[in-house]
Write a structure and sequence with these properties.
Layout lengths: L1 E3 L3 H12 L6 E4 L10 E3 L5 E3 L10 H10 L5 E5 L2 E5 L2 E4 L11 H17 L8 H9 L1 H16 L20 H10 L12 E5 L5 H9 L4 E4 L3 E5 L4 E4 L4 E3 L3 E3 L3 H6 L6 H8 L2 E13 L8 E3 L9 E4 H4 L13 E10 L6 H14 L8 E16 L4 H14 L2 E3 L2 H4 L7 H17 L20
Parallel strand pairs: 1-2, 1-13, 2-9, 6-15, 13-19
Antiparallel strand pairs: 3-4, 5-8, 6-7, 10-11, 11-12, 14-17, 14-18, 15-16, 16-17
């Protein structure tokens, strides 16, 4: 068996094969290091940065068990999420739609009136586009105040071109009764929404420490710097960039689905066309380090407006002291920003660092007098798969054909499904495909045909 990609999914697959006593596998990774989208880097100034905003949380027991194998309890720092949305020059607690009382009275009332009218009209129709779903679920005012500008910024895609089938737990509901009470009394209750309300983070090494430790447990054939350029599904063989030819009985591919199809010898024309229709975002992670401590206790902040190029800023020195030089958050601070770009955009790295620096200072997150000692940029070409309107139809064509060739595409970009794109999802998919191929057991979260929007209705 050959596994493509040493990110969370590929590593978990290899680890599970090893645990099951199946040793006849090869793991190929194009990059010089393991971790994939879960990697971390240390810049020249000594700051640790993740490739985007990752935190550790899960409802999957097998993921929790794996984490417990890799880390002693004291090696994971536990946090209570504290997140806010930048809006009109002030901060609104996240989720925005549950904290309307932080807006002006007129704006809050307009949002609540439109929300009430929308809910009175009933649920959004199944298989609707994302823009229509938002309007039908939250009403025009809330969409205008937050949902449209933020989602356009993060997805770099027209919302009418996106499906609503991915939503599930990704978008918070809004309770009209609770909002009315909050507008009257200012009290929102004590319940905190979302699966990441509590999260963990490695005490040192960033998120990448998880995957480096998992890779270190593998005693099989792991090869980094091995990029696959050609797959002959009929001969069940592949070719790497250095000319190595490998045969396989099963191929588990965890990289980008469209790239996999593009390098296959005999993919039918309809499968190729479906793959070219898949869209994704590129994200520029600009990490800014300062010789100045931060007193901000918040975890991460959302920026739907034009006052910042990034859609999210993470208080990275708050996650773990080891993320700054000498593990000294009393002397340094670190802000990790994420700016979404259409695929193929040319990036002015120095210009982005300056823009992000100015925005952090303008919003009061960094003192004007703070000395910037690091400005590190990582371009992530494949950051998020965009759930476009035609995505599910494309996947329903591509994935069954691949499986008929004994090729199993899993992971965030292997499935091209944002809704199962977290690290715990990727690990679960890796474990499950290993068990399926060795023991014939069913997979837990992956299905060849994505569920319809009905499962994502907000009530």
């Amino acid at each position: 068996m050959v596994i493509l990609g040493a990110g969370p999914c590929g590593l978990a697959c290899a680890h599970e094969l090893q645990r099951l006593g199946h040793r006849d596998w090869v793991l190929l990774e194009a990059a010089p290091r393991v971790g994939g989208l879960g990697s971390s880097v240390v810049d020249e100034a000594g700051f640790t940065w993740d490739l985007g905003g990752h935190v550790v949380f899960s409802k999957m027991k097998s993921f929790d068990a794996l984490l417990a194998e890799l880390f002693e309890p004291q090696e994971l720092l536990r946090h209570q999420r504290s997140s806010f949305v930048r809006h009109g020059g002030s901060w609104v607690p996240y989720p925005f739609q549950q904290h309307l009382h932080h807006l002006t009275q007129a704006r809050a009332r307009r949002c609540l009136d439109d929300l009430t009218a929308a809910q009175a009209r009933g649920r959004a129709l199944a298989e609707t586009d994302f823009a229509s779903w938002l309007e039908a679920t939250y009403g025009h005012a809330l969409v205008e105040e937050f949902f449209a500008p933020y989602n356009k910024k993060i997805w770099a895609t027209s919302l009418s071109e996106m499906s609503a089938s991915w939503i599930a737990e990704r978008v918070a509901p809004a309770d009209i009764s609770a909002l009315r009470l909050a507008l009257k009394t200012g009290f929102t209750g004590t319940q905190v929404w979302g699966p990441n309300a509590q999260f963990a983070f490695p005490a040192s090494g960033g998120t990448g420490a998880i995957w480096r430790r998992l890779a270190a447990r593998l005693d099989g054939d792991v090869r980094t710097g091995q990029r696959v350029v050609y797959v002959d599904e009929a001969a069940k063989s592949l070719l790497t960039a250095d000319g190595t030819v490998l045969a396989y009985d099963h191929l588990v591919a965890t990289g980008a689905l469209n790239g996999l199809v593009a390098m296959m010898a005999g993919a039918p024309e309809d499968v190729r066309l479906a793959a070219t229709a898949l869209r994704h975002t590129t994200v520029a992670m600009a990490g800014l380090g300062y010789r100045s401590p931060t007193t901000d206790r918040r975890s991460w902040l959302y920026f739907p407006g034009c006052e910042a190029p990034f859609y999210r800023a993470t208080n990275f020195s708050r996650y773990a002291p080891a993320n700054v030089p000498d593990s000294d958050p009393g002397r340094y601070s670190a802000w990790m920003t994420e700016t979404s770009l259409p695929a193929g955009t040319l990036l002015d790295r120095a210009g982005l660092v300056e823009e992000c620096d100015l925005a952090l200072r303008r919003c009061g997150l960094v003192p004007e007098s703070a000395e910037r000692v690091s400005g590190h940029v990582e371009l992530i070409p494949y950051a998020y798969p965009v759930p476009t309107v035609g995505r599910d139809a494309a996947l329903a064509l591509i994935q069954p054909w691949l499986e008929r060739q004994s090729i199993y595409s899993r992971g965030r970009f292997g499935t091209w499904r944002y809704e199962i794109g977290n690290m715990d999802h990727a690990v679960t998919m890796g474990q499950d495909i290993a068990r399926r191929l060795v023991r014939g057991t069913a997979e837990r979260i992956y299905t060849a045909r994505p569920p319809t929007v009905g499962s994502a209705d907000v009530r």
